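User: Okay, second chain of the day. Same drill as before: sequence in, C-alpha cells out.
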Amino acid sequence: MLCWFCAEAARATCRFCGRGVCADHARFGPYILQVNRSESRRRAEALVVDDAVQCGSCRPRPHAVAMPELD
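Assistant: Same drill. C-alpha cells below.
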C-alpha cells in the first residue's frame, strides 16, 4: 500500500477512513473502542485508545453524535 499523500510505502492505515499513510504523514489522536452504560452510575463510559493513527485528511467528528433510538 502507498501513502495517500506522497506515494511512498505506507507504514499504517488511518483508523477512521483506511487511507495508507507513511511515517511523515501519520498523525495520532484518540479513538473510541467501546461505549458502556454503567448501571450503578447511570452514565455512559468509553474505552478509548489515545494514539490511534489518523491520516489528517478525513475529518472525524470531534463530539459524540446523539443516538436516542438506542436508549
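The radius of gyration is 16 Å.

User: Thanks, on to the next one.
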